[in-house]
């Protein structure tokens, strides 16, 4: 979803150097909304929820103080609920990075709830924050796996 500058009308022409009126801003927003597809919003929301859940799990370096397992659990459940829609919109193969990151987050959450050591971003089972839902799988390892942050069974 591209964010149009609300101070610019559609097409990028300035409002004569003045601040746009509320009506002009509303018209620009309506034009932007006409271009947005629900699948796009659902996918972006799913990735955002997953990223916040990873943060709340304390898996992002420096976020250990942000750890909140109730928030992590809610994020996991939300992503689980939305994932079938994301897979329908993107296809199962393109949604795989989201599914894989969710699986890793679930494992880290289960370990944390069972009283294991707090998950660490350096641990091999720490889930990566998903890059973008539009990564093209099938062209070698994805960005998370290339970075060495993706735990892959048997590797």
Topology diagram in text:
Elements: H1 22-35, H2 38-56, H3 69-90, H4 96-113, H5 143-146
Provide a brief overview of the structure.
This protein is an all-alpha fold and 155 residues long.
Q: Could you explain how this protein is built, in words?
A:
The chain has 155 residues and is mostly helical. The protein has two domains: 36 residues, no CATH class; 98 residues. 50% of the residues lie in helices and 0% in strands. The C terminus is likely disordered.
What labels describe this entry?
155 residues; mainly alpha; 2 domains
The largest pleated sheet is described as: none
Provide the number of structural domains: 2
Distance between the termini: 36 Å
Range of strand content: under 5%
Average pLDDT level: 78
Which oligomerization state do the chains in this entry correspond to? single chain
DSSP E strands, number: 0
- What is the radius of gyration computed over CA atoms, rounded to a whole number of angstroms? 19 Å
Approximate shape: elongated
Question: What string gives the helices and strands in order?
Answer: HHHHH
Helical residues, percent: 40-55%
Number of distinct helices: 5
Low-pLDDT windows of residues: 118-139, 149-155
The secondary-structure class comes to mainly alpha
């Amino acid at each position: 979803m591209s964010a149009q500058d609300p101070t610019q009308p559609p097409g990028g022409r300035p409002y004569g150097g003045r601040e746009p009126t509320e009506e002009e801003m509303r018209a620009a927003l309506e034009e932007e909304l006409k271009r947005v597809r629900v699948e796009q919003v659902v996918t972006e929301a799913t990735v955002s929820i997953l990223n916040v859940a990873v943060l709340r799990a304390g898996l992002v370096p420096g976020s250990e103080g942000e750890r909140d397992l109730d928030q992590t659990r809610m994020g996991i459940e939300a992503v689980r609920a939305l994932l079938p829609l994301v897979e329908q919109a993107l296809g199962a193969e393109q949604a795989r990075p989201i599914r894989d990151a969710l699986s890793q987050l679930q494992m880290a959450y289960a370990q944390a709830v069972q009283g294991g050591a707090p998950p660490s971003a350096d641990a091999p089972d720490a889930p990566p924050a998903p890059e973008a839902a539009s990564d093209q799988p099938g062209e070698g390892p994805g960005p998370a796996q290339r970075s060495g942050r993706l735990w892959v069974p048997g590797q």
